[in-house]
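Suppose a colleague, Dr. K., hands you the sequence of a protein chain of 239 amino acids and asks what its three-dimensional shape might be. Before reaching for any lab equipment, you can write down a predicted structure in token form. Begin with the sequence itself:
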Amino acid sequence: MKKLVFSEKDAVWNKYSSRVNVEDIFVGRVASVEDYGAFIHLRFPDGLYHLTGLVHVSEVSWDLIQDIRDILNEGDEVRVKVIKIDRFLPVSFLTRIPGLCPTSQEKSRITLSIKQLEEDPLLETLEKVIPQDGSVISDSSSMSSSNSNTIEPLPGLGAIFEELLQEDGIDDVRITRQGFEKRVVSQDLQLWLSNAPPSGKKFTLLARAGRQVQEIQLSTFLDQEGIKKALQRVLERVP
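The predicted structure, expressed as tokens, is then:
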């Protein structure tokens, strides 16, 4: 066709994306706000905004957000953390390579977070409401325990415990401590694997509903990935 196609966008990306790394922190300006998140122009050391990233609505705040526009508006200045970078060859380049067909998903993008610049309020408060020595609540609850002083599992947690004990490699599930947060993050039951390093073959799960927080000890021969997969299977089975 004897045509030459140029892309200023690709040139800017190629020049400046190499200067961006995961865990980097930028000051940015909100370019636009959508229902699913906000696009942020990133300010570089020269004072110019060369690249744009996306903060998904789930990465804006640790609190439950009904409308992202209650927090962010176009033109706001914010601090953001880079949590993911997808680097792909420009589509115009791929189309010139025989056998390569670029898909709509093969887009270079920068994923950002605002909330990860702060500690999860649960992790901050857990040790405040539950001292390391366990002096607030020293009882523990297990599915096989009949002790009258056991901690009552959060609603829906008992069924999850029963299903977890059916998974290969999981020997015991018990609540070790509980406490209450100062604010409500979500009324729904939330359950996840703590980042705390395991002690022997014992891992820590955290459960939260409303203001109540429970720390759960999981005795297992599984590694972290195995536990995550087991949790996923269990949560798919439990209504």
